[in-house]
């Protein structure tokens, strides 16, 4: 007979491993340890093309506007702190990006192809094939992107760089990446072992922190909600 405690601990470790391997945002910002010296064939890009930069788990998207300019959505905490365009127009660092994701503030901005991709491979119009949708005319795509330039609310699931690009390219804002993440969350919720794991963690918090409303209520309601959702 399996030990319920060991099974619950195993499940928690499994979920933590899943989370650690999953990047929760499309990182288009340069990392401190990457070199941005890759040469791109800019002349092969057409105004209105969708440029895609694949990362380990997710992809960052932008719309090519011509003249080595790419419009793309980037979370940036500085937008909430200052109106100084001299500061906010600089390439967004990873720290600015992560804090922007947390605070849900972003902008649709224009960067060079090099700053947009930062050394990564660029795919062109790959969404056309993967989504099997008919794209709008390239000029209309570019004009849609230009009209949306500026500060915008940000959401990993409801308003990210992929939503921006698909709206410009196809007229409908969708994000297959966000949909896939939601499906993974559903799988976790529907796994009845999650109920056991949350109950064990709830009891552990009560034992460690004492019997109080901030420990007891979550210990009761989280397993109950998971049970009902499953």
Automatic annotation (TrEMBL):
Pathway: Cofactor metabolism; retinol metabolism. The active site is at 161 (acyl-thioester intermediate). It catalyses: 1,2-dihexadecanoyl-sn-glycero-3-phosphocholine + all-trans-retinol = all-trans-retinyl hexadecanoate + 2-hexadecanoyl-sn-glycero-3-phosphocholine; 1,2-dioctanoyl-sn-glycero-3-phosphocholine + all-trans-retinol--[retinol-binding protein] = 2-octanoyl-sn-glycero-3-phosphocholine + all-trans-retinyl octanoate + apo--[retinol-binding protein]; 1,2-didodecanoyl-sn-glycero-3-phosphocholine + all-trans-retinol--[retinol-binding protein] = 2-dodecanoyl-sn-glycero-3-phosphocholine + all-trans-retinyl dodecanoate + apo--[retinol-binding protein]; all-trans-retinol--[retinol-binding protein] + 1,2-dihexadecanoyl-sn-glycero-3-phosphocholine = apo--[retinol-binding protein] + all-trans-retinyl hexadecanoate + 2-hexadecanoyl-sn-glycero-3-phosphocholine. The keyword Acyltransferase applies. Belongs to the H-rev107 family. Keywords: Acyltransferase, Cytoplasm, Endoplasmic reticulum, Endosome, Lipid metabolism, Membrane, Sensory transduction, Transferase, Transmembrane, Transmembrane helix, Vision. One of its GO terms (biological process) is visual perception. Transfers the acyl group from the sn-1 position of phosphatidylcholine to all-trans retinol, producing all-trans retinyl esters. Retinyl esters are storage forms of vitamin A. LRAT plays a critical role in vision. It provides the all-trans retinyl ester substrates for the isomerohydrolase which processes the esters into 11-cis-retinol in the retinal pigment epithelium; due to a membrane-associated alcohol dehydrogenase, 11 cis-retinol is oxidized and converted into 11-cis-retinaldehyde which is the chromophore for rhodopsin and the cone photopigments. This is Lecithin retinol acyltransferase. The chain crosses the membrane at residues 196-229. The keyword Flavoprotein does not apply. Its EC number is 2.3.1.135. GO terms for molecular function: phosphatidylcholine-retinol O-acyltransferase activity. It is a single-pass membrane protein. It is found in: Cytoplasm, Perinuclear region; Endoplasmic reticulum membrane; Endosome, Multivesicular body; Rough endoplasmic reticulum.
């Amino acid at each position: 007979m399996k030990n319920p405690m060991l099974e619950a601990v195993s499940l928690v470790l499994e979920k933590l491993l899943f989370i650690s391997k999953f990047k929760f945002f499309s990182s288009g910002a340069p990392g401190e340890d990457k070199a941005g010296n890759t040469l791109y064939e800019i002349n092969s890009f057409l105004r209105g093309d969708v440029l895609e930069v694949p990362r380990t788990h997710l992809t960052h998207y932008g719309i090519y506007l011509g003249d080595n300019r790419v419009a793309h959505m980037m979370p940036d905490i500085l937008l909430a702190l200052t109106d100084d365009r001299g500061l906010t127009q600089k390439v967004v660092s990873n720290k600015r990006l992560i804090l922007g994701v947390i605070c849900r503030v972003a902008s649709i901005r224009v960067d060079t192809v090099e700053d947009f991709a930062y050394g990564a491979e660029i795919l062109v119009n790959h969404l056309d094939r993967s989504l099997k949708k008919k794209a709008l005319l390239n000029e209309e795509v570019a004009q849609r992107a230009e009209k949306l330039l500026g500060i915008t609310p940000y959401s990993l699931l409801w308003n990210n760089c992929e939503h921006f690009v698909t709206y410009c390219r196809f007229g409908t804002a969708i994000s297959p990446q966000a949909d896939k993440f939601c499906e993974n969350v559903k799988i976790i919720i529907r796994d009845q072992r999650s109920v056991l794991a949350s109950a064990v963690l709830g009891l552990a918090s009560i034992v460690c922190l004492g019997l109080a409303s901030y420990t007891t209520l979550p210990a009761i309601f989280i397993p109950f909600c998971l049970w009902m959702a499953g």
